[in-house]
Task: inverse folding
């Protein structure tokens, strides 16, 4: 799969780690740099799809790094800063940043805003349409691991996403819980078939599939669009 690469330039390792965790959980590839110089070098070596850039770095300021990057590359940049200072914000945007997030941040909001920027760029590059698959009232963008219903992103865990996509791509086929465990969780998964039931209940609720994702009594499940 074509995964998006995020470069995090942040000297506070706990913050960098939280961001890395949050983005990796959502299927992004993440690299971290802990100084401006290191981050700039990493971006030059292998340009990411987006840079999350801290304002206060030990060597260069985030604004300097932002300028250096935007002079050479057409990279989306999201600035992070400790304060919600309006002047900083304007200054950050003038320096070429695409968005600006203040700490402490909500991890989900950071991921959502990054997705919005990437989606906007895809649209601008005409890449969006071909990557959208429509299944009834659900729209799937596989590259982003996102599913939309009535224009709203469903808040799915990675396993819920995989299970949902599996059903959507195999309509009218009956799958036993054992097969679903093997396909989605893998052979070495230690849980039991109850895991499948719980996930099916969740995706039914989240994706509005109460009527279409049906239980075949004594056998398993089937998606009937
Ligand atoms: Ca910092």
Result:
């Amino acid at each position: 799969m074509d995964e998006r690469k995020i470069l995090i330039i942040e000297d506070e390792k706990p913050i960098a780690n939280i961001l890395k965790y949050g983005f990796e959980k959502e299927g992004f590839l993440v690299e971290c740099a802990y100084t401006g110089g290191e981050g700039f070098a990493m971006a030059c070596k292998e340009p990411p799809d987006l840079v999350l850039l801290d304002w206060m770095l030990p060597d260069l300021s985030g604004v300097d790094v932002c300028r250096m990057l935007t002079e050479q590359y057409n990279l989306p940049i999201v600035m992070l800063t400790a304060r919600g200072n309006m002047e900083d914000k304007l200054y950050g945007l003038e320096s070429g940043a695409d968005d600006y997030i203040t700490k402490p941040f909500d991890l989900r909001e950071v991921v959502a805003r990054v997705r919005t920027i990437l989606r906007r760029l895809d649209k601008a590059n005409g890449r969006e349409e071909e990557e959208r698959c429509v299944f009834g009232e659900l729209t799937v963008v596989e590259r982003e691991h996102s599913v939309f219903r009535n224009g709203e992103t469903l808040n799915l865990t990675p396993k819920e996403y995989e299970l949902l996509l599996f059903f959507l791509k195999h309509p009218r086929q009956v799958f036993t819980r054992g097969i679903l465990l093997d396909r989605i969780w893998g052979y070495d998964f230690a849980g039991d078939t109850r895991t499948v039931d719980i996930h099916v209940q969740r995706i039914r609720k989240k994706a509005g599939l109460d009527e279409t994702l049906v239980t075949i009594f004594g056998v398993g499940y089937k998606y009937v669009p």
